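Components:
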Amino acid sequence: MPGLTGRVAQRRRAGVLRQGWSHLLDDYPTALAWACGGRLVMTGDSSGALTAVDAARSDIVWSFADAHEPGPVHLAAGGPSFVVSAGADGVVASRDAATGALRWRHELGAAWLDTISVSPDGSRVATAAGRHAHRWSADGGDAWTSFEHPSTVAAVAWTPAGELVTASFGAVCVFGDDPEPKARFEWQGSLVSLVLSPDGDVVACGSQDNTVHFWRTATGTDAAMYGYPAKPSALAFDDASRLLATGGGEAVTVWVFGDGGPEGSTPGVLDAHADTVTSLAFAPRSTTLASGGRDGGVLVWRLGPDGNGKAVGFNVCDGRIEAVAWRPDGRSLAAIDASGHLTTWRTGS
Amino acid sequence: MSRVPVTILTGFLGAGKTTLLNRILTEHHGRRIAVIENEFGEIGIDQGLVVNADEEVFEMSNGCICCTVRGDLIRVLGNLGKRRDKFDYVLVETTGLADPGPVAQTFFMDDDIAAEYALDGIVTVVDAVHVDQQLGRSRETEEQIAFADVVVLNKTDLVEERRLDELEARIRSMNGVTAMHRASFGSVAVDVLLDQRSFDLTVALDRRPTFLEPEYPFEWTGVYRLDPGTHTLRFDAGPDPTMGLAVLPLPEATIEALEAGAERCVRVFAEPPACVRVGDQVTPGHHVDAALDAVDQTAVTLLIGEGTGEQLYGLFCEHLAEEYHPTVTTADGATIAPVIERAWVAAHEHDESVTSVGIEADGNVDGDRLNQWLGKLLDDKGTDLFRMKGFLAVAGETDRVVFQGVHMLLDSQPDRPWGDEPRRNQLVFIGRDLDADELRAGFQACLV
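Structure:
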């Protein structure tokens, strides 16, 4: 990755990422989440294992090698107390975050599960198996299944009110309690990523045709952002619902919502990765953004109101970055990469 | 990091894809192969990591079919990529009705997939027994053949040799650059299927395209030993009103001499034929059209000129011997059997909508004009152009330029210096309803 190291080397003095610890996992890491209010970092990997690491002392608190059958595992934390995981075995399971004790487990059949999400208030869990979305209350009860989508559900997310949102080929669907969607936002393209603004006003998707498409949920009015060199699979909104950071190439493109935008506006462009951006995350309650790339680079950016900004921290891992995630207090950043490492940094200027 | 090679296995339901797949998995002990299956085959797959995927074609918002990819493959391959240490080859088995375009395009259009996987080739299994019917009825079968890098002509044990020659020629007329292997029960060596690097520009063109093989205006030749004098040549009545024919001396009774004679005979056939009727004379070296208007048999007199004893002659006939049963008898009434015979499958036999158009030209092309022409061609015909391959001598470039494409996705790169080799261009287009004359004229206009 000479391109990245070369480019960021000039910013060495500005680095705000201070190396914490690094763990080599047994297999390719596929999922990353903070839990217990930032006391634990959790990963899932391709062997089907789940591992929880103490963020301060870096020792493994619990680990289950066979939490799922072999295959990529996905993870989400629910509030301070539990995590949910989904795997290639079609199993959704919830564990106590502190101890790893199994709380509940559901089998959904043969489909590989590629997405899992906990509602903002921690009261609901959702995943997608093939063309159906599934939802439970946090205790695993109250099972609900959506209608059969016209194609595989690529991603699930939540409105602030706790309504389930799905993205698939051709449409974003919003669900109440009925299996049929209460609202549909259509776009003739394959939607591969999904994010809602924290205030619930905007739903945005990356599409296979190298566009970002978004809708205003109140009116259904939509717009498409063209010009990406690759499909935007990484998306992130800041907590103020003002900045939407998007991957889809080597640059991070930041759209500013408000002041009539982003329609017709010029986005901020953050250019330092030497290969496709794979993961984006805003630090809580701030406009500090972390980006990870296929080049193994992890960068931290301070963004201005126009969506432009400068890199204030950088690091290069041994493999393609699979995910970056901020600790809930914003004072640590974690990343997993294809070499099998879980790495953490402390952040601060 | 080396990319994992992927072979796409297509073919109509029942052609024997699963049998072939099992054979690959059984024979290729050294490889750890992952199989992505789109349908339940005739028989189960017994080894390897097998993943079932629901065929999901992702059309793009711009409606361009050339941008269409397979969403199921993106998902499954993306997930498999995270288990890279556990396999080193991927086979994608498509349904019999699958359009190979989106499958192939997935490996070029999707960034994540292109970074981790390299499309090695498209193998199409063809059922020798039923393909003739399928070609008439099914666009899918035509397109699967058009896209193929390798065609496996399967179930050959159930079809006679001559029929297989005809089928091969029919398939070649549709796809002039494919490799072709005959098999029964999927018995074909694995190393002609996998690791072909068909999409690798550096090796793809080392295999000489066969599309330049001549298309003969005759379908059958028999080689006879004939003494000087008068012979009788008889044909049965058949569906055609006339039989174009020519008799040419040959140096020896070998297939090679016969094939060399066929080249000469093409020129003879290019001359306007003289019409002959029952009882008329035919002499060697001339193109004639015999009117087959007798009720049962038409007989013409074959006059072999003064010579020194017995000589070999090739009787080149417009139509197949099995339809018209040509017989040669001496003045005494003795029947002379051919020493050797060969059927040529004339390209005009089937009116294919999918064809290969080959273009060969000496000299240089103007790069800008070529780009403009290709750009317009892809705009207008991209949907109907399935594959293209070739090399070019671009004016001002010291290196040969090789290129290949799937639909509108075109990839080109410099290959090797021309050096002392004469600069020339060779292109082949495989597509539906191609206008060969227009393509040739378009390319000619790019020459400097």
